[in-house]
Amino acid sequence: MVVDPVCQKEVDEKSAPGGKARFRGEVYYFCDKSCRAAFQRSPQKYLPNKGEEKELNYDPRMFLGDM
Ligand SMILES: [Zn+2]
Q: How many whole angstroms from 5 Cα to the centroid of ligand 1?
């Protein structure tokens, strides 16, 4: 099992109901198509900030909730 990065539910990667999406070389699986759509709109919102690779469309508003 893997964890859906959007809603944190466990998803079986062999039959993920929401399908999967690739981001920066990692594959993520989703419990629902709406979770996948949300992830694809703004993947960084759902992933831990690794503090590297600043994106061209970097948006400082993403970090207002941190700390
Ligand atoms: Zn989900």
A: 7
C-alpha 18 to ligand 1 mean position (Å) = 8
List, for residues 28-63, the tens digit of each pLDDT value: 999 999 999 999 999 989 987 665 555 556 566 666
Question: What is the reported pTM?
Answer: 0.70
Report how far ligand 1's centroid is from the alpha carbon of 21 (Å): 13
- DSSP state for residue 44 in the 8-state scheme: H
- Total number of domains in the chain: 1
The range of the structural domain enclosing residue 18 comes to 2-63
CA of 58 from ligand 1 middle (Å) equals 24
